[in-house]
Amino acid sequence: MKGEGCFIRARKPEEIAQRRDSILAATARLLAQQAPDQLSLNAIAREARLAKSNVYRYFESREAIYLALLMQDLDGWVEDVKAALAPLAGSNQPATVAAVLATATVARPRLCQLVSLLGNVLERNLSEQAVLAFKQESLQRGLAVLSALQAALPAVGTVRLQDFMAYFLAQVGGLWPVCHPAPLVEKVLQRPELSLMRRDFADSLTDSLQLMLAGLLAEAG
């Protein structure tokens, strides 16, 4: 493999960060063409122009690389959501808040795809330390969004908004594969009699979030 013979181990923090970024960039390029569960660590190493053994110096597994990409996407999503919700402070407008969340989410298809694979792909083949770090980082981001939701929907209350955050994650993870089926399934669903089974991700996510938030607001009285 070109580049393997002259591999120089990164030692300085900035060199390590640069090498990790190059592996993440290589993985991102491949994910634009292949599904995460079909992509091998060998392919990632080839794309990054590294030996597989050298990739392990920076990530403990393929799944750890995916989680790092997910966190990158999540960081951008959190910042977009916070900025869009800020003008809605105190408004108690569930439809508008739902639209903000859906718009930011739909704009990041890779994030949606990775979230849909969290339980059965991404959170496997990891050390306990890696899982703990991911959960802690995810919680930190989630709390930032929760704070923005509390400001925009003060009437709903903190506990129910915490519940909503869990439901929201489940909606994204569940709707993504339903709205993006395998090619053969997509072909079959084009039959007129199956039109009710075709779902648009953006519309479905927006509708479901609006229903949940409106229900929580009504429940709060």
Automatic annotation (TrEMBL):
Domain HTH tetR-type span(s) in chain numbering: 17-77
SUPFAM superfamilies in the record: Homeodomain-like (SSF46689)
DNA-binding region ranges: 40-59
Family matches, as Pfam families: TetR_C_34, TetR_N
Keywords, ordered alphabetically: DNA-binding, Transcription, Transcription regulation
InterPro entries: Homeodomain-like_sf, HTH-type_TetR-like_transc_reg, HTH_TetR, TetR_C_34
Superkingdom classification of source: Bacteria
Name of this protein: TetR-lik transcriptional regulator
The species this protein was found in: Isoalcanivorax pacificus W11-5
